[in-house]
Amino acid sequence: MSNYLKATDFGSKDALLSGDPNKIVKGTEINDEFDAIQTAVNSKANKNNAALTGTPTAPTAATTTDTTQVATTAFVKAQQGAIAITGGTITGTAISGLTSPLEVASGGTGLTTVGTDGQVLTSTGTEIAWETPDPGYTDDDVKSFLNATGTAPIYSCRGWARVTSKTTLAASGNFASVADGGAGIAVFTFGAAMPDANYSVVVSPSPDSTAQFGNSGSTYVAYDQTTTGFKVCGRGYTGSNNTTYFSDQGYANMGIAVFR
User: Fold this and answer.
1) For range 14-36, the mean pLDDT
2) How many whole angstroms separate alpha carbon 216 and alpha carbon 77?
3) Which domain holds residue 93?
4) Per residue in 187-202, pLDDT tens?
5) How many domains does the chain contain in total?
6) Of the candidates 169, 190, 183, 199, which has an alpha carbon nearest to the alpha carbon of residue 233?
């Protein structure tokens, strides 16, 4: 990029005496001046979409600047501070692909180790460190809360319900619905699915056997278990010959519990 330098001092010609050949403005002088102007203009950068070459410089803004001002390399390095990344990339606020520890020197001694699986970063106000979270309780604590003793494991009730008919959930936990599946049959559907069908269903029909089943009784069993639900079938029997029939009577006050 060159600057325009005037080759002919046209103003000085005015002071020359008439008849002095140098007082005449020659066409070649004018042509040379315009050529010099054209050369200088062609070598300057455009204001719009300038394609600069070489090593252009600009004022370095303060690190708190948040405008459309041009950012110099010095400004960018000042924004990075003391964070050094080796073999990694920054996408937004996430850092990934690190091949060496990420050192954080600002405000503390820094972190130069990689934590193990399950650890979290904690801060003391002057340094950060990897720590294994304390759950705040042990297996023995849980057993104590449940009044459970011994070494046998504890398994959870994964669903419970009280039904007052084959289509009515009076109260429940993790049951979405109960539906009529035909004579003596109720279809139970979980709210959240089980991990598999290897669960145990405890069925407790109405305890008022005298009112519900006459002088005999009934049996209610769970079957057709899937991860999303199961069925219960009721069979009543009566008389000296224990005549059996499909029974809906036990659903008048039935309890259900599922363990897994």
Assistant:
1) 83
2) 89
3) 85-131
4) 999 999 999 999 999 9
5) 3
6) 183
